Amino acid sequence: MKAFATLLDRLVLTPSRNGKLTLLVDYFRTTPDPDRGYGLAALAGTLDLKGIKPALLKELALERLDPVLFQYSYDYVGDLAETIALIWDGGAKERVAAESQPRLGEVVTRMNSLGRTEVRAAVRELLDHLDHSSRFAFLKLATGGLRIGVSARLAKQALSEMSGPAGEGRDVTEIETLWHGLAPPYQPLFAWLEGRAEKPVLATPAIFHSVMLANPVEAGDLDRLDPRDYAAEWKWDGIRVQISSFGATRKLYSRSGDDISGAFPDVIDAIGFEGVIDGELLVGGTARSNSATRSFSDLQQRLNRKTVNARLVQDYPAFVRAYDLLFEGDDDRRARTYLERRARLEDLIDRAPHDRFDLSPLVPFADWQELDALRLSPPDPVIEGVMIKRRDSAYQAGRLKGPWFKWKREPFNVDAVMMYAQRGHGKRSSYYSDFTFGVWAEGPDGEMLVPVGKAYFGFTDAELETLDKFVRDNTVERFGPVRAVRAEPGFGFVLEVAFEGINRSTRHKSGVAMRFPRIARLRPDKLPRDADRLSTLIALIDQRIDQRAGEAGEGPA
Amino acid sequence: MKPEALLYPTPAGLYCPAGDFHVDPVRPVKRALITHGHSDHARAGHGAVLATRQTLDIMALRYGADFAGSTQAVAWGEAVDLGGVKVRFHPAGHVLGSAQIAIEKDGTRIVVSGDYKRGVDPTCAPFEPVACDVFITEATFGLPVFHHPDPKAETRKLLTSLVQFPERTHLVGAYALGKAQRVIRLIRDCGYDRPIYIHGALARLCDYYRAEGIDLGDLRPATVEKKEPGTFHGAIVVGPPSAFQERWARRFNEPLIAFASGWMMVRQRAKQGGVELPLVISDHCDWPELLDTIREIAPQQVWVTHGREEALVRWCELAGIAARPLHLVGYEDEGD
Known about the structure:
The complex is a heterodimer of chains A (557) and B (336).
Chain A: H1 2-13, H2 17-30, H3 35-44, H4 54-64, H5 67-77, H6 80-87, H7 91-97, H8 104-112, H9 119-129, H10 132-143, H11 152-162, H12 172-179, H13 187-193, E1 215-216, E2 230-236, E3 239-246, E4 249-254, H14 265-270, E5 275-283, H15 296-300, H16 310-315, E6 318-328, E7 331-332, H17 338-351, E8 357-359, H18 368-376, E9 383-390, E10 404-408, E11 412-423, E12 432-443, E13 446-455, H19 461-473, E14 475-479, E15 482-485, E16 494-499, E17 501-504, E18 512-515, E19 518-522, H20 534-552
Parallel strand pairs in A: 1-10, 6-8
Antiparallel strand pairs in A: 2-9, 3-4, 3-5, 5-6, 6-7, 9-10, 11-12, 11-15, 11-16, 12-13, 14-15, 16-19, 17-18
Helix pairs in contact in A: 1-2, 1-10, 2-11, 3-8, 4-6, 5-6, 6-10
Chain B: H1 3-6, E1 8-10, E2 13-16, E3 21-23, E4 31-33, E5 46-52, H2 53-63, E6 68-74, E7 80-82, E8 85-91, E9 99-105, E10 108-112, E11 134-139, H3 151-164, E12 170-173, H4 179-189, E13 196-198, H5 203-211, E14 219-221, E15 236-239, E16 256-260, H6 267-272, E17 277-279, H7 287-297, E18 301-307, H8 309-318, E19 322-325
Parallel strand pairs in B: 3-4, 4-5, 5-6, 10-11, 11-18, 12-15, 12-16, 13-14, 13-15, 16-17, 18-19
Antiparallel strand pairs in B: 1-2, 2-3, 7-8, 8-9, 9-10
EC number (chain A): 6.5.1.1
Domain ATP-dependent DNA ligase family profile (chain A): 311-441
Catalytic activity (chain A): ATP + (deoxyribonucleotide)n-3'-hydroxyl + 5'-phospho-(deoxyribonucleotide)m = (deoxyribonucleotide)n+m + AMP + diphosphate
């Protein structure tokens, strides 16, 4: 447990991806089986551990501590698992056990073997034998509150790196393909990664296959290509998914291979075919049911959940707009051409339930100019650009340059005023690099700036120096790590902010939320009074809603 | 004599009318008794100052030789008579020269502990329990959440990180007086003998500690040498935490920020401060040490000064010990 607890403590506070990778690789290399396999499962979200209710933990804590002192402590720390990890006084046992604490594998096995009446005593005993950081890790695992900013993908990347230096080790796509056929504590996987055993043979069907990705179109790319070699599809603004179905096993995976089946029973139940298809997960009605596709913010109501209730399924029905076919039954079709695969896919979707599946239509075009015009004014607000796919391309995992391109519609741009700045992390910890920006709105006392978003990238290192200097020279107030800067009509810093989308939000004071905002340009040539107004942003949202209502033939929402 | 008449809180700090002196006053007074050299306890501008030699030396280093009208150094345990009040200084184990002050008149004895700790610290004399009627304790870490781990185990985290990230400069934040020297000593005791680089703000105090016989090994200024830009790759640099947010820190390669403080016990504190490697090393008592000390001294009453008074007072009530908060202002509970 100690090794895993130490890893967690470091991961939580390490902002950089490379730093996290180093810590993960080190953990996988130095921790023995089966502990590292359970650690991997905990990070990748595949660990099955008997849960503990917060109420039980609190009762255990109050067996040893006065309720008033407990409350003072909880108020100070603010997190139940951490409070209990810190206040727990294991007495002598804790000190003696510091070097010989229960191992993660032992903890998992023990917890999962307990009957209902044994849990209380077993948890009390475990807490006595763990030190404070191991207690924290254990409580976070057992209460399901592990949030450390490590994706399953990053954990697999670390596995790839532990198997050898780049180019020599096992490829991460190979690991992803194996992943869903294996279970914790992953001993055969580690044996293979360390070159001690053959590649594991999968018994479980319906595994995830790494997806094929596209490169953005860059200046001059298309000039070299013949439009007759390519087909185009709309790029839909949902999330990329893969359906993998064999026998009784039906799975929905995210693009990175996370199993999200549990949150989408409506889609899973509708799968009648066998095979593997690639598509976009969206909410609303399919083209075949003649109702509108709904926005990404509607889809978000369904994302990042383990389970879902009937109400959400009814209000936000999900469906898959199919892009490609990888397997038909257990026949691998990935080496066929795009058009051949598409013909088979069309056939398969035709037979699938019409309210849960449709086919992403082809977009006919004669030349790149025509496609460019289509891209800039797509027929549906849930389209964020076009995909360009070589007609004869095979389905190859990864992001190869050439066969597939994505060509997004232009991002939105506004001029906003820097209002607050916060210091960054790691390499940027001595720089003010996270900026909250605002636009003008009518306030009770006249014109005022309201914050509309936060951005921390998009600028060069030289521009960061400029921004940082402005913050240091023009701070008007400090709140912990945050500084408020001068922002008046006649003095301040104007930032040109680019973003991918905008929605109404009840969570933000301004009432709007941007997607993917970043700083496109510094505008020292402008004064804050020249910056945009909130009404301009709201008009952007209304424009999209009107557009969708018009397309779908419905009244205004 | 009633203890409340012997010593009581005033806006300037704890005051003893019989001896006409203040303890650790926060504003200039005629006569001050100073427990230790941290700036919230030891301020310049008093008429006369009574303290240990080391505390007086540290005050002179920080404020200049003329920091008070007159000074008097007192030895451990030496009795000094001030208007019929007998005062003695005893080691507090907090930083070099730090003392508790025992104040006695007509058979009533009050011990003002100042800041203190019970853990092992080779950079200062260890805390000495003194029997008394009233024990005045700090409560900086006076909540059951604070259990300071073994400082050597914490120090080894730093050395492990150096192995994991051999390119990155490890910046260790530590307050200039006491913590910085203790951390350097701990790093040495864990077997690290390469040069340690220090921020300019630490130089005089490190020199003073060495002059007092505390070996800190090879210390070098953390200044950039143009001819050797790689100097700080994988090096340990110790400095005051505030410096890491300043432009000064940009000379280092991908700095990894560590902070040696009792506050690092709580994850959110570390996160808010942008600390990547928290080292829970404290110069104050943790919760069990506070309780053990009160049980050991077994005073009639406990008065609680700065920190989290309410939790410690609550514990004393539950344990049947008379206790009250003094609500003194002017002592920062951040300084650890």
